[in-house]
Amino acid sequence: MPVTAFYDSILPMSISKEDVKYVAALARVHLPEDKLEGFTKTLGDIVRYVEQLQKLDVENVKPTSHAVPLGNVLRADIVKTSLTHSQALSVAIESKDGCFKVPLVIE
């Protein structure tokens, strides 16, 4: 696969503190100097995990958008008769020219 060739060329590398500083700068994230060592180790662990995932055989795995099957949880859309114009206006406190009349809310 072309994607595998791309990942093979960039993943077998170690993450340096400069790499972490660079990524933090790209993300516009302030990274305190005392946290740099921890983030370097964490980012290195993530890269090593991605290297492990690249070794998996996924040739016969179908692409999915969700890990579990999803179904529609909404009720069926059933067409029913609705109120007529006069029925809707019959509950209005005030109406004018066939429309609901409401108090002015913008000054």
Description:
By secondary structure, this protein is mainly alpha-helical. The chain has a domain at 2-54: Histone, subunit A. 40% of the residues lie in helices and 4% in strands. The protein has helices at 2-10, 17-26, 36-54, 85-89; strands at residues 95-96, 99-100. The chain has a two-stranded antiparallel sheet with strand order 1-2. The termini are far apart.
Summary of the model, kept short:
By secondary structure, this protein is mainly alpha-helical. It has helices at 2-10, 17-26, 36-54, 85-89; strands spanning 95-96, 99-100. Mean pLDDT is 85; it is low at 1-7.
Q: What is the straight-line distance between the termini?
A: 64 Å
What percent of the residues sit in helical stretches (DSSP H or I)? 40-55%
Number of strands: 2
Q: CATH fold name of the domain at 2-54, please?
A: Histone, subunit A
Helix/strand order:
HHHHEE
> Widest sheet: strand order?
1-2
**Low-pLDDT residue intervals, each spanning 5 or more residues:** 1-7
CATH architecture of the domain at 2-54: Orthogonal Bundle
Shape: elongated
Determine the oligomeric state from the structure: single chain
Secondary-structure content class? mainly alpha
- The fraction of residues in strands falls at under 5%
